[in-house]
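Posting here for the record, re: nicotinamide-adenine-dinucleotide.
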Amino acid sequence: MDQEVIPKTILNWIDGEECEAITGDTFGKLSPVSGKELGRVARSRVEDVQKAIQVARRAQPAWADSTPVYRGDLLYDIAQAMRKQQEEIASIVSLETGMSFKQALGETGGAIAQGEFMAGEGRRLYGRTTTSAVPNKYAMVVRQPLGVAGLIIAANTPIANVAWKVFPALICGNAAVLKAAEDTPATAWIVGRIAKEVGLPPGVLNIIQGYGEEAGAPLVASPEVDVISFTGSTEVGRQIAEVAGRRLAKVSLELGGKNPLVVCDDADLENAANWVLLSAFSNAGQRCASGSRIIIFDSIYEKFRNLLVERTEKLKVGPGDDDDFGPVINEVQLTNMLSAIERAREKGAVVLTGGHRLTDPAHVDGFYMAPTILENVDPQDEISTKEIFGPITCLYRVQDFAEALNLANDSPYGLTACIHTRSIHRAIEFTQKIQAGVAMVNAGTYGSEPHMPFGGLKQSGNGTREPGTEALDVYSDLKDIYINIDTEML
Ligand code: NAD
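Prediction output follows.
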């Protein structure tokens, strides 16, 4: 793969121009595969963020005055340009994250589909007309842009994360300041380049590189940012909600998960094992929707556990298209995973497979975690209740459906959940009673579509949904309009 696709220094996009951080500072972006530097990244701070916000404020009124159809056409052009450059984008995603090119290509396809869907909203952006109790009075509801949208994203599925926020924010008539994830700066950068090539008016989409506390926090704190949309950890989401709450700014939080996958005694065990492996380990477990709590009926526990362990030990870990999953995003995350496993061990957890860093010659330079399965963990232990965001999953034994459902719901999170069963009764009961924003049957805990609202309950979010048409609710305000007809003028 050609490393030239990543610029030597990845800069900000402000007012349609690439620019360094005002201080000229940079930091290094390392390859998760080799541990070597892929490029330098502009290290923005409060002054850079304020500049981007001012530019966005200036550009926003004209953008809001353009018709939604015009905006949709431009966003459609951006999506088509992304399609033309899909391989280049995928190469960047793959280099920055260590995921295979094949997987990155698929993720980029999903981001393009998101763009196409949201571009189509330019011809809809439905409001409502309704009745009035008063004669000769007409009532309607229309959508209005909010102003400047501050967008902050995680690195795990980087191009999808950009698309999920940028397209709905812009179609609604907002200008945006996107704070790229520090681990995937070039993925955000290339979207800025494409937007410029396509002719998006300068200042409508600004992209800021930098660390969370230095470049993300000032965006959240600025009174000139009208909506903050954040995808990341529950811990940071809570801080953002506090800061934004003080100035009553609108906030959308898409946070972490500790997602259960229930395997019943009547499940197709081969199929269930396939989905457990994908849910737990694909993308190195770096999914908000990864399956990290596998809840198994007692009568099939040993058989299913043995099947999982056997299949896990055959997984290929590496950056290639033939590998099952790649490295984790950085050394700090890897160290956190190892210490979480160590603490679980001290509490009596049994590591069935994995539990360590891969240090053989093929993996030693990268940030590789062995696929890990634990059992004998208490549902209240840290390992059961705190998201780890790596290729690590825990097994739990239950007697029956009622206990499985209780355990699945016994979590501070409520993002996604899945059940494997041949019983329609169990499947429907589960989808009705599970406390999650997404419920699946005979599938994985992950996987979402651009036209469907995604988001979680409890500590997985604050009740908003992105994407789907529900994302329009995040990025627009509703306005009631009443019109009295003067009958004498008739
Ligand atoms: P993180 O919360 O550490 O960082 C996410 C983003 O927030 C980064 O861009 C970071 O720079 C920024 N940030 C950090 N501190 C900040 C602060 N004080 N103010 C403003 N911005 C700040 O998360 P991460 O480890 O990079 O990402 C993994 C997390 O993202 C997991 O918890 C995962 O579940 C979650 N996630 C959720 C969804 C979803 O849709 N629910 C999707 C993907 C990832």
